[in-house]
Design brief:
421 residues; elongated; 10 helices; Aminopeptidase; 4-stranded antiparallel sheet; 2 domains; 18 strands; binds zinc ion; alpha+beta
Length: 421
């Protein structure tokens, strides 16, 4: 990639890192404005919308609306807190040769900058044969709130590429998550009179044993792409007002990772079954991310593999959860793809870094992917879908309307539905 492009990418990423957008609380609005200003200076319109005060998503569209396919390039504006252990200011990008360091350079502002530059280059082409939409969401690091708000507002696409550090491997699936609280109640009281009590802590070994058995059963049934579902005890607590009192309640928190095909309801029922018959046990399941899985034979996956030079044929799992499931649930084809590695590049840790070269390559790959997917080159894709709602079936209830041509007032129905298209 030419030097000027690399300089633009670096400039945008430096500005994005300097606008912290730490989640919690989120504060993505500043970073969204930075991205909007960058796109504007390249002649592209971008809409920033707050989904909560100070929390923002950005959408920028190019190409021919209503023609061919719509591809979204999506990554997130928010970052996890910096934490301790940085050599310098984590919100001031530092560069040593090819190595860029700062909070978010890899997860995921670097991916976002690479996608934004790909959009700018694609916009300079005379004809794309479809639409490319840059989607910068907030809230990815906690509950996918930005992506969910976007989808609730009616955003759809035929295909979505989610920018996360995958080492440029085309990831087709990720696990979901549930957080399960097991509350064990009994009778607490004076520790010197323990014979009259029913301490819940005494029942914990049986509870833990049954959960361990369940975890072993899960480990024996791996999913072909993302591996086995897991169950881990992540918190054990039982506490009375002082250490001479037996607590009347003990609580376990479980982290349960779901594989594609599993549901939160099933996870809840399975844990209740495992603990069935034990007195004073209550189970509460909080649904987190859903698992997601993309058919590896889909034209999007083939276009992504062609663009990255991958020779993989089966599915590849992304080790963390991300926004893939939110878009997949709208019916869009969806892959996860980006530069760097979650662990090696210290995402979510002090010293998060990424290679500028790798980001530039990712940017070029996003551009190739878009061209290939929209054009359906070399038999990679069939003809574009007919006049059906984007990303859904013809009977899909998801509201979607084409943008009104300039100078015409949308009718009322369109007005109420006109959202992120
Ligand atoms: Zn991320």
């Amino acid at each position: 990639m030419e030097t000027r492009e690399r300089a633009e990418l670096l400039k945008l990423l430096t500005e994005l890192v300097a606008s912290p957008s730490v989640n919690p609380p989120g504060d993505e609005l500043g970073a969204a404005r930075v991205l909007q200003a960058h796109l504007r200076s390249a002649g592209l319109a971008a809409e920033v919308r707050e989904f909560e005060p100070g929390r923002a998503n950005l959408v920028a569209r190019i190409g021919e609306p209503g023609r061919g396919r719509r591809l979204a390039l999506c990554s997130h504006l928010d970052v996890v807190p910096a934490g301790d252990g940085w050599g310098g200011d984590p919100f001031r990008l530092s560069r040593a040769g090819d190595r860029l360091e700062g909070r978010g350079v890899c997860d995921a502002k670097g991916q976002l900058a690479a996608m934004a530059r790909a959009l700018v280059r694609l916009a300079a082409r005379p004809r794309l044969g479809g639409e490319v939409v840059l989607v910068a969401v907030g809230g990815e690091e906690a509950g996918a709130t930005g992506a969910k708000a976007l989808v609730e507002e009616g955003f759809t696409a035929d295909a979505v590429v989610v920018g996360e550090p995958t080492g440029m491997r085309v990831c087709t699936a990720h696990k979901g998550r549930a957080e399960v609280t097991v509350r064990v109640t009994g009778t607490g009281g004076h520790a010197a009179a323990v014979r009259d009590l029913d301490p819940p802590v005494a029942r914990l070994p049986e509870v833990l044993l049954r959960l361990e058995r369940l975890a072993a059963e899960l480990a024996a049934a791996p999913h072909p792409v993302v591996g086995p579902p897991t169950l881990a005890v992540t918190r054990v607590s039982a506490r009375a007002a002082n250490t001479a009192t037996v607590p009347q309640e003990a609580t376990l928190v479980l982290d349960r990772r779901l594989v594609p095909g599993e549901t939160h309801e099933r996870v809840d029922a399975e844990i209740r079954r495992a603990l069935d018959g034990l007195a004073g046990v209550e189970v509460r399941t909080r649904a987190g991310a859903h698992p997601a899985e993309q058919d590896p034979g889909h034209p999007l996956v083939r276009a992504a593999r062609a663009a990255t030079g991958s020779d993989a044929s089966g599915g590849i799992g992304f080790p963390a959860t991300c926004d893939q499931y939110v878009f997949a649930r709208t019916g869009a084809a969806c892959v996860v793809l980006g530069a760097g590695d979650l662990r090696e590049n210290r995402a979510h840790a002090a010293g998060e870094h990424v290679s500028l070269e790798a980001l530039a390559e990712a940017s070029a790959a996003y551009e190739r992917l878009a061209l290939t997917y929209l054009a359906g080159l070399a038999g990679l894709a069939g003809p574009p879908p007919a006049e059906t709602p984007r990303g859904g079936t013809p009977s899909s209830a998801t509201p979607w309307t084409a943008p009104a041509p300039a100078g015409t007032a949308p009718d009322t129905a369109q007005e109420t539905q006109r959202t992120w298209t």
